[in-house]
Amino acid sequence: MDSLHTKLLYLLPVFMYERKQPYQHDRLASSEFDVFKTLNQVTEPSTVKTVDELEVASLEIEILEPPSAEEIFSSLPEGWEADEREDDDIGAAKSSQYQKTQFDDAVGAFFKEMARYPLLKADEEVELARRVRFLVEVEELQKRLQNELNRQPNRLELVAVLELSERQLEHRLYLGRVAKRKMIRSNLRLVVSIAKRYLNRGLPFLDLIQEGEVLRKEQSTPQGDGGLGGDRPKSLTEAQSQAVNTITQINEFATILLHGVTGSGKTEVYLQAISPLLQQGKSALVLVPEIGLTPQLTDRFRARFGSKVCVYHSALSDGERYDTWRQMLTGEPQVVIGTRSAVFAPLPNLGLIVLDEEHDGSFKQDSPIPTYHARKVAQWRAELENCPLVLGSATPSLESWVNVVDLESLTKDEGRRTKDNTHYLSLPERIQSRPLPPIEVVDMRQELQQGNRSIFSRSLRDALQQLQEREQQGILFIHRRGHSTFVSCRSCGCVLECPHCDVSLSYHHTEANAPELLRCHYCNFVRSHPKNCPECSSPYLKFFGSGTQRVTEELAKQFPQLRCIRFDSDTTRTKGSHRTLLTRFANYEADLLVGTQMLTKGLDLPQVTLVGVVAADGLLNLPDYRAAERAFQTLTQVAGRAGRGDDPGRVIVQTYTPEHQVIQAVQQHEYESFTTSELQQREALNYPPYGRLILLRLSSLDATSVEQTASFLTTQLSNNAAGFDILGPAPANILRVANRYRWQIMLKIPPNVQPELPDWNFVRSLIPASVSLTIDVDPLHLM
C-alpha cells in the first residue's frame, strides 16, 4: 500500500509542474466555454478570421485529450518502480487491517498535499482525476474517505469525477460548456454530481447524493391539474391573438421581434405561447435583464404553470442553485426564468427562448471576461435547438430592428416587410384600449427664472399634492443613487475624490441620524464625511447634484404625509429585498416609489397613476454614441409605468433641454421617427448596427506600462491593418478604477467589409504579464 502513497505523492507535483506551462485556454479564443460547438469541433485561434468567428471563439475552451496509462507512469521520476517493488514485499507481510490503515494514510496524504495548490480549472480537474483513477480503486476511495472529504468539501467534486465513465467525463466538460466560467467555479460540483443521473435516467442516483436528501421545489397551491397553477389564460386582443398564433405555428428556428407598447400584454403572449409547448413535453427559457424583475415575472408564471417554473440567477444561494440545476436536468417540461447567465442553462428539449426587454444593456456582460451578449448567445442556441427566439420590447434595440425589419420597404412606403427567417409582430395598443399616458415636459430653466430653486417643478409639486389627496400611487425616477453627486469646498474648490479611482466620492445620507458617508460608486470605497476640507480646513463644504436619497429627503420636507420607498441598488442588496419592497408598494404601504433605472425594466404596477422624471438631462449628455438611444429607451420605459390600471396615467419630465430630439420623441411616443433619425447618424459614421466595433481594453496597476503597451500594440496592429480602422490608443473616460489604469484601442470595421483580423495569439504575446487585455466584440459601454 505504500506504493500507492508513493505514486500519489509523485503524481501531484508532476501534474502541477506540467500545469505551470502557459495554458492554452488562457488565450483570447478560448476564454470561455462554447455551448455551440460539438466536443471535437473546437476552433483554433489561428482559424479566427472574421468578427463573427472571433465572437464565437471568445466562448471556447480547448479540450485536453485523456492520457494513457503509459503516459501517466512515464511522467513519474525514475526509480519509483523500485520503490514499488520494495513496498510490495513489505506489504505482503502486513495484515489486511494494516493495509486499510496504509490506504487511508496514502490518500489522506494526497489530499493534504493537494490542499497546498490552488483550485484547478475544469479541464485540469478532469485530467487529474483520470490520472488518479489509474492509481486507486474508486470503490475503496468512496468507502474509506467519506469523513476526510466531508472535512474538505471543496474536493468532493474529485470523487464524483473519479466515479464517472470516460463518456461521462466528456459529458462533464459538455455540461461545463453550457455554463460561464464564473458559474463553474461555484456550480461545477453540482453539475458533476448529477451528470450520471442525466445520462442514465433509468439508474438510481448512484450514491452521489447523501441518503435522505430530497429535491426541494417551490410550494404551490394544489390545483389538481398536474402541477399547474390556478391562473387561467386571459382573453386576448386581436394583435395578441395574431402574435400567439404566429409563435405557436413556428416549429423551427426563427427570430421574432415582438414590438408592443408598454402595457400591451407581452407577458400574456409569452404565457399562452409557452403553454402548448409544455403539453408537448418541451421546455421554455425566459430571460430578463435584472434580478429585480424576476419576482414579479416569476409570480405571473407560477400562477399559470405552478411547480413547472424555476428561477436561476446569481442571487440564489448554493442550495437553491443546486436544486435548480437538478430540476433542469430531470428532463421534465418546465419554464426557467433567469438573467443573462441562464442562457447557458442545460435545458433538454428546448422549444422556445424569450428575451423580455431585449433592448436592455444588462444582457451584455463586459466584465469580467468573457464578454458576450445574451441576445446573440440566445440566437446561436436557438439555431442549434431549432426553436424560435422571441425578442420582446416596447423600445427594440436598433440592432434587432435592423436585423428583422427591411428598412427599404419603409422608405418606399411598401409597408413593413421582414428579412428572411424573421417575423415582426406588433402590439400597437394597450390592453382594454387604455391610452398611453400624456407626457408633460417642464423646462427647468423657466422654473429657475421664476424663482423656483427646488428639485421639483411646480407641475410636479401639484401632481404630488393631488396624489396625496386622491390616495393614489406614483413613481419618481432619477438616474443616480446616493444623496449628492459630489462634495466641494466653497473656500478652495477642492472636490473630495476616491483615492483608488479618478472619480469624485458621492455623498450618502439616508436619514437624519444616519452616518454621513462618502462612497465611490466604482470601487465601493467608503469613508466618513469630514467636517472640514482636507486641503484648507474650511468648514464650508457644499453638496452638488441629486440622487435618490436627496429626492426622498426633499419629499419628507415638502410632503411629510407621503410615504416613500427607495428602490435602488443600495436598498436591494440583501436577498429577497426586491420582492419585499415591491410587495410593500403593491399592498399600499407606500405612496411613492423613488428609484433608479431598476424601475424602468418591465415592472407592472397597475395602481401607479403618476410618473415623474426628476432630471432627464443626466441621460442625454454622455460621451457615448449610444447615449441618445439609451435615453429614449429609459424615458419611454419609465413613462410606461403610468396608467396601466383603470385610472388614467400622467407623466412629467423635467429637463433643461426640452428641444432635444430625444425629449421630443418621448413626448410624442414616436419610436419609428426617432429610430429613423438615429439610424441615419449611425450609418453616416459607420457605427453599429451598420459597422462593427472591436474594443481592446488594457489595464494595469502601472500607469506607464499600460500606456506604453497600448502604443506598442497599436503600432503592431497598424502594420497589418486591412479592412478596418484603428482609433486610439486613448485613455478610458475614467482613466483609473480600483487602482488600475485603463487604455482603449478601437477597431472600427465598415459595413459589408470582410476584414483580415490579426493573429490573436500574436496579439496576446505582445502583452506583458503586468497588463491585462480584454477583447470586446460590439461593445455596449465605452466609458
Radius of gyration: 29 Å
Helix content: 25-40%
Helix- and strand-based class? alpha/beta
How much strand content do the residues show?
15-25%
Q: Which shape, going by the Cα principal axes?
A: globular
Low-confidence stretches: 20-46, 60-104, 137-214, 219-226
The CA-CA distance between the termini, in Å, is: 61 Å
Instruction: Kindly state the number of beta strands.
Output: 24
Instruction: State the helix count.
Output: 28
Strands of the widest sheet, in order across it, are 3-4-2-5-8-1-9
What composes the largest sheet? Answer: 7 strands, parallel
Overall mean pLDDT: 76
Describe the structure in your own words:
With 783 residues, the chain is α/β, with parallel strands linked by helices. The longest helix has 19 residues, at 96-114. Helix 6 packs across helix 9, helix 9 (156-163) runs parallel beside helix 11 and helix 11 crosses helix 15. Helices cover 39% and strands 16% of the residues. The radius of gyration is 29 Å and the shape is globular.
Topology:
Elements (H helix, E strand, L loop, with lengths): L1 H18 L31 H7 L11 H6 L5 H13 L3 H19 L7 H12 L4 H7 L1 H6 L4 H8 L2 H12 L3 H19 L38 H12 L4 E7 L5 H14 L3 E5 L6 H12 L3 E4 L5 H11 L6 E4 L11 E7 L7 E2 L6 E2 H12 L2 E6 L4 H7 L2 H5 L10 E6 L11 E5 H6 L8 H13 L2 E5 L8 E4 L16 E3 L8 E3 L6 E3 L12 E4 L3 H11 L5 E4 L9 H10 L5 E4 L12 E6 L3 H4 L6 H13 L10 E6 L5 H7 L3 H15 L6 E9 L2 H17 L5 E13 L2 E10 L10 H6 L5 E7 L6
Parallel strand pairs: 1-8, 1-9, 2-4, 2-5, 3-4, 5-8, 10-20, 11-18, 11-19, 17-18, 19-20
Antiparallel strand pairs: 6-7, 12-16, 13-14, 14-15, 21-23, 21-24, 22-23
Helix pairs in contact: 1-4, 1-5, 1-6, 6-9, 9-11, 10-11, 11-15, 12-13, 24-25
